[in-house]
Specification:
The chain is α/β, with parallel strands linked by helices. The protein is 40% helix and 14% strand. It is globular and about 60 Å long. It has 12 helices and 12 strands. A 7-stranded mixed β-sheet has the order 2-8-7-6-5-3-4, sandwiched between helices. The longest helix has 22 residues. The protein folds into 2 domains: 143 residues, Aspartate Aminotransferase, domain 1; 237 residues, Type I PLP-dependent aspartate aminotransferase-like (Major domain) (Aspartate Aminotransferase, domain 2). α7 links the parallel β5 and β6. Bound molecules: 4'-deoxy-4'-aminopyridoxal-5'-phosphate and glutamic acid. The site of glutamic acid has 9 residues, from loops.
Length: 393
């Protein structure tokens, strides 16, 4: 047998973000002092009261399976949160699913709605895993390249240019990884009209919801009247609560879809870690001060990074509305493309970045810098990159 893996893997690359995580680990093991602005992972510790609750759960023997849908108290806490923060009304008993990571919630949502051959519209630049997930289940991702000159806005015209009779769903990520763009009310209205008129489902990835700047307000597609019955909202604890290693996320949506999605969970992972879910309850129902503090730190870092980038010759970067990434236009630096720039910066400055081209159409000519790292590291990175560019002349 020559082709032992399924043909679904055709066109599926290894994750570009994990490639950077792995490369940084490899270089560090070789003794290279790499400054990592590549993978997006908060450097903060998980809030203490969340850790305490999970430890307490472990110590009291809370180490067994939970209901596949999730712990009732966590399902309740999620539905209260969705109503309060997002204006989304769901029944915790039927419309919510707790998953081991938002990543798995997204995968389960796509398995739930896409048949092989269906098209999933993905506005790009987008996080690296959406298109791979669609391909892994035999569906076709249709990338809708957004325009950096237009602030990576999603417009009705762009959506109309990419829709087809096979389009089943549109995946929208706001605040956006990698561009930092947040949906405006106007964009949300355009998306909702488009979805209703073409009878398309929406998957809303809201994982960066807590990380917003300049008083911006998060817009949830699932809260719009004509979207409530066609939107699966995905969220998680990794970014807002600095809980990446816990693997905890959730999805919420219309009962018929969530009933099927529960089957994906039952037949794959079974349930999410019991004590991990207890930590999730503490995160949602406990003090939110740590979340505010992290957001303040990100605000300070954002300024540092945007100023640092704009001070580099040939680099232009506008301030992101949300999330913890700066998406900088490097076309003025004279490098052939984003990948060669990122490679050169890694070799000359030992700073890891993500080339924008990894995020699909619209990303070429840009690099993504994660500022989920300390100001000390950020300052040192800009010093190194600045010096390397100056030496290059
Ligand atoms: N969506 C986006 C846009 C992300 O950047 C991430 C981070 N990896 C995820 C979903 C998944 O988050 P997690 O699996 O850690 O919950
Ligand atoms: N979301 C992060 C990133 O984009 C983490 C890596 C991943 O899960 O892809 O860097």
């Amino acid at each position: 047998m020559s082709n032992r893996a399924a043909t679904r893997f055709d066109g599926v690359q290894k994750s570009a973000t994990y490639a950077v995580f792995d490369m940084v680990a490899r270089l560090r093991a070789q003794g290279v002092e790499v400054l990592d602005l590549g993978g997006g992972e908060p450097d903060f510790d998980t809030p203490v009261h969340v850790v305490d609750e999970a430890v307490h759960a472990l110590r009291e023997g809370f180490t067994h399976y939970t209901p596949s849908r999730g712990l009732p108290e966590l399902l309740d806490a999620i539905s209260v949160k969705l109503a309060k923060d997002n204006g989304i009304t769901v029944d915790p008993a039927t419309d919510v699913l707790v998953t081991p990571s938002a990543k798995h919630a997204l995968f389960a949502a796509l398995v739930t709605v896409l048949d092989p051959g269906d098209e999933l519209m993905v506005p790009t630049p987008s996080w690296v895993s959406y298109t791979a997930m669609a391909r892994l289940i035999g569906a076709h991702p249709v990338q809708v390249g957004l325009d950096g000159a237009d602030g990576f806005r999603i417009t009705r015209e762009l959506l109309e240019a990419h829709v087809s009779p096979r389009t089943k769903a549109l995946l929208v990520n706001s605040p956006n990884n990698p561009t930092g763009h947040c949906l405006t009310q106007e964009e949300a209205r355009a998306i909702s009209r488009f979805a209703a008129e073409h009878d398309i489902l929406l998957i809303a990835d809201e994982i960066y919801e807590k990380i917003l700047y300049d008083g911006r307000e998060h817009v949830s597609l699932g809260a719009l009247p004509c979207c409530a019955d066609r939107t699966i909202t995905v969220n998680g604890f990794s970014k807002g609560y600095a809980m990446t290693g816990w693997r905890l996320g959730y999805a919420a949506g219309p009962t018929d879809l969530m009933t099927q999605m529960l089957k994906v969970q039952q037949h794959t992972v079974g349930c999410t870690g019991s004590f991990v879910q207890r930590g999730g309850v503490a995160a949602l129902t406990g003090p939110q001060e740590p979340v505010r503090e992290m957001r303040e730190q990100y605000t300070h870092r954002r300024e540092l990074v945007v100023d640092g980038l704009n001070a580099l010759p040939g680099v232009v970067c506008s301030a992101p509305d949300g999330a913890f990434y700066a998406f900088a236009d490097i076309r003025g630096t004279g490098f052939a493309d984003a990948a060669s720039f990122a490679q050169w910066v890694l070799e000359r400055a030992n700073v890891a970045l993500m080339p924008g081209s990894a995020f699909g159409p619209g990303g070429e000519g840009y690099v993504r810098l994660s500022f989920a790292t300390s100001p000390r590291v950020l300052r040192a990175a800009f010093e190194r990159i600045g010096r390397a560019l100056a030496e290059r002349g």
